[in-house]
Amino acid sequence: MYDFAVVGVGPAGARFARRAAESGYDVVAFEQGTVGTPLACSGHVSTDIWEYVPETAKADLFQNRVCGARFHIGGPDSAAYPFYKREEISNVIDRVELDRTLAGLARDAGADVREHHTVVDVDERHDEVALTVSHDGETETVRARMVAGCDGPTSRVRRQCGLPEPEELLHGVLAFDSAPDDSDFVDVHLTAPRFFAWRIPRGDAGVEYGLAAPPGRSVNELFEQLTDDYDVETEHFCSGAIPIGPPERVHGRRVFLIGDAAAQTKPFTGGGILYGMTAADRAAETIDPGDPATLRDYESAWRSALSREIALGHWLRRAYSLPEPVQRVGLRALSGEIGVHMDRPSSFFSRDHLRKVLGL
Ligand SMILES: Cc1cc2nc3c(=O)[nH]c(=O)nc-3n(C[C@H](O)[C@H](O)[C@H](O)COP(=O)(O)OP(=O)(O)OC[C@H]3O[C@@H](n4cnc5c(N)ncnc54)[C@H](O)[C@@H]3O)c2cc1C
Q1: FAD-binding domain location, by residue (predicted)?
Q2: pLDDT at 350
Q3: Which of 154, 180, 192, 285 is the most buried if burial means most Cβ atoms within 10 Å?
């Protein structure tokens, strides 16, 4: 019997598998497809990302540096309200390569990472969890003392174990124009209901156009409107769900959720790569597979790391739905040089940032 079975090898699953294997546990991790595919993510992350991969990986992952965002209430021709820092705030990275790198690190640490293995059933018992795993048309039963559900926004582990669903699932879409662009501002358009559309320069990898909003027909229509407004033809269209939460509880008797499965995302951007890996670290530090009581320690550890930021992120997101005249006044008042960290809305209220806003 394994100590931990991990379902899903995205950033959260790969990070947890690596950290648990490094602690000496016997870890198996199942990925239903090929690690990193299909792509449904911008890979726009704070520079904290480099703490999670070796220095040598940077050359393969890095695509562009970003120093700020231009906010627009309308399309590309509308007034722009820039928010920026003098140094880089964030990076655009190759998300497929990130997942491959993180999975490689998990394997190097001793985790048994198996691609093209789909977990089709989860049976949480008193003293173990039995997973039914399908591979090449065959199924096998794998037993583990605990199971980490890292299987993304529409998590099967979450559903089968009766854990609460996220309060909301947004629909995100994106596509690419191949013209290289290494400029250092992203554009954010508050044209989608309760969220936004974006343009991200990705260096030699071209430009990404994307949009997220509550599901409905309007998502694709608004995306077409965005690319028409920019007068571009895009290719490699992809889409995915963005969970907004968090739910009340992300653990059961012997099962726990990490990453998008636990809706550990930023409500004001939908970004979840770094929050998921932060929670994965808390899980690896607190959970003893022989002691189900430690699942409660994980629950409090990840909430103490992230729940304040998530709560403040909900407040920031409310600004996307304010009446346009109020948005205009707010953006005009707050735009300019900022002192915020993109993963920490609390930094918006820091003394440094408030001094900047007040011009002190
Ligand atoms: C359009 C869009 C743009 C985004 N842009 C950004 C961004 O710029 N920055 C950012 O930080 N975040 C972004 N995100 C969010 C980010 O993609 C997620 O937060 C992140 O991928 C979550 O990682 P995860 O490991 O929890 O889940 P995932 O990356 O979804 O990984 C889950 C894995 O589980 C596998 N799996 C699922 N079910 C099973 C099963 N039954 N058996 C075996 N394997 C299974 C899947 O194949 C997948 O590989 C974006 C999301 C979308 C939709």
Answers
A1: 4-168
A2: 74
A3: 192
Atom of ligand 1 nearest to the CA of 44: 8
Question: Which is the closest atom of ligand 1 to the Cα of 174?
Answer: 1
Distance 10 CA to ligand 1 centre (A): 6
| Beta strands 168-177; 185-189: pairing state | unpaired
Q: What pLDDT score was predicted for residue 358?
A: 64
Q: Annotate 282-303 with DSSP letters as a single string.
A: HHHHH-BTTBTTHHHHHHHHHH
Total Cβ atoms within 10 A of residue 75? 15
What are the helix (H) ranges across 7-94?
11-22, 58-61
The residue whose two tokens read 């250092």 is: 184
Structure tokens at 213: 């909003």
Q: How far is the CA of 13 from the centre of ligand 1 (A)?
A: 10
CB of 194 closer than 8 Å to CB of 221: no
- The model's pLDDT over 216-248, given as tens digits with 9 standing for 90+, comes to 879 999 999 999 999 999 999 999 999 999 999
- Quick: pLDDT tens for 267-294: 999 999 999 999 999 999 999 999 999 9
Which residue matches tokens 């008797």? Answer: 253
Identity of residue 344: R
Q: Give the pLDDT mean for 144-159.
A: 98
pLDDT of 317 reads 95
> pLDDT tens, 83-124?
999 999 999 999 999 999 999 999 999 999 999 999 999 999
Domain ranges of the chain: 2-319, 322-357
Tokens found for residue 243: 């969970």
Q: Are 71 and 190 in contact (CB under 8 A)?
A: yes
Q: How far is the CA of 156 from the centre of ligand 1 (A)?
A: 14
- For tokens 């040598």, the residue is 56
Residue located nearest, by CA, to atom 1 of ligand 1: 172
Tokens of 340: 């915020």
Q: What is the token pair recorded at 196?
A: 């936004």
Split at pLDDT 50, 70, 90, the class of 143 is very high
What was the pLDDT predicted at 129?
Answer: 98
**Pocket perturbation via mutation, ligand 1, pick of 18, 151, 250, 342 by most ligand atoms within 8 A of CB:** 151
**8 A C-beta contact, residue 235 and residue 178:** yes
CA 70 to chain CA centroid, Å, is 22
